[in-house]
Amino acid sequence: xVKKEIxxxxxxxxxxxxxxxxxxxxxxEEEKKKMLASYHxxxxxxFVSILLxxxxxxxxxxxxxxxxxxxxxxxxxxxxxLIITCLIGVNVAGVRWETRFPKTSRSLHYVGxxxxxxxxxxxxxxxxxxxxxxxxxxxxxxxxxxxxxxLKDAIVLLFTSFLLFVYLNGSIxxxxxxxxxxxxxxxxxxxxxxxxxxxxxxxxxxxxxxTINALILFLMEFVPKLVEGNGDTIILSILFIVGxxxxxxxxxxxxxxxxxIQGHILHGVAAIFLTYELAIWFPLAYFLFLLYLIxxxxxxxxxxxxxxxFRYYIDxxxxxxxxxxxIIGGLLLLVFGFFFEKQRQKGGESIES
Length: 353
Known about the structure:
Layout: E1 4-6, H1 8-23, H2 29-37, E2 39-41, H3 47-69, H4 76-96, H5 102-126, H6 133-151, H7 154-174, H8 182-196, H9 201-226, H10 231-248, H11 253-274, H12 281-295, H13 299-315, H14 322-345
Parallel strand pairs: 1-2
C-alpha cells in the first residue's frame, strides 16, 4: 500500500480527529491504527540540521583552503598522510556519533565527501597523475554514492548526481572518442537508492534528467557513426518517441507524475526541433495530438502549443502583421483555457501533466 505523505502537523491533526471518532464509537482502535498507518510523515529540515550542514561545508572548505595555501611547503609523504588521516578521521567520528548525535554525525560524513573529492585532485597533482578531469569526478561520484547508500541521504545523492553530470558531459568538452559507459552502471544504482528513499520528488526529477541527458549523449555519439546523413533527424525522432513512452509508461506511483511530465517536455522539445526537419504533415499531426491531450486535461500540452505558436511566429514575423499573429495566438490560448476550465468543472480526470 502506498502511503500518503503529510506534514507532522497534519498527522497530529488527523490523530486527534480519529481519537475523537474513536471516543464517539464511530471507529474502533484497530481501524484508527489502520487509517493512521496509511499516512507517512515527511521528514522536515530542522534549524539544527541546516546549521550543521552549513557548518560541515564551511569546515570542509576551511580545511581544504588551509591545506591548499600551505601545499608547497609540505612534503609528499606528509601531504598524503594528512589527506588519509582527515578522510578516515571525520568518517570514523561520524560512525561513532551516529547513535548519540545523528545530525552531527551526518554533517561529518558531508565533510568526508568534500575531503575525499579534494584528496583525489590533490593526489593527482602530488604524484603528477595525468587523467581527465571528468574521470576524477567519476571517482568522486563513486565514493559519494557509497556514502549515500550508507546514509540513505537525499542531499548526498543530489550531490552525487551533480558529480555524475560533470563526468557525463565532460567528455564533450574533452572531445573524447568513447562514450562514458560507467554512467550506465551508476544510473541503476542511483535509481535503487531513490527507491530506498521512497522516491523524493526533487531527487527523482534530477536522476530522471540525468538519465535523459545520458540517452541524448549516447545517441549523439553513436547515431552519426551508424547512419550517414540525417543524423539529427533520427536522433530527434528517437527522443520524440522516448518522450511519448515516458509520458505514458507505468512506473511506481510516487515517480509517475515526475516521469510523465518529463516525458511530455521531452517529446515537446523534440517535436519543435523536428518541425525544422520534417514536412508540414508532422506539425499538423502533432498539433492534433496535442489537442487530444488537452481534451484529456493536459496542462503541459497547452504550454507546448504556446511554444509551437511562438516557433512559427518567429518564422512568420516578416510575412504576417505582428498584431494578427498575437490575435491568433491569443484566441487559441483563450479557447484552450476555456476548454480546460470546462473539463475541470465537469470533474473530468486530469492527467498529472
